Amino acid sequence: DVKMAIKKGLDMLHNENLVFRDLHRQNIIITDEIDEESESNRVRFIDFNWAEKAGDVRYSFHLAFCICDISGMLEYDLIQKDHDIKILDTL
């Protein structure tokens, strides 16, 4: 299942205390390599320019309302790992 593979990737980032912050379909690639053993090894994240350590950085002002409603984040709020998970639930 692709969604579980994305969750596995987020877990790897979160274990390093990182938040991806820009999780949407355009930033997820599914490789087409035949030798990959399972779906979970085929998921790749791209565009890490928003990724930061959890709790070290704040979101900017003027966040999109739809993102705030989904994730629970607030303008100038500290970034948190659970925001990634809430966004994942909407993919």
TrEMBL record:
Domain Protein kinase: 1-91
GO molecular function: ATP binding; protein kinase activity
Domain of life per record: Eukaryota
Name recorded for this polypeptide: Protein kinase domain-containing protein
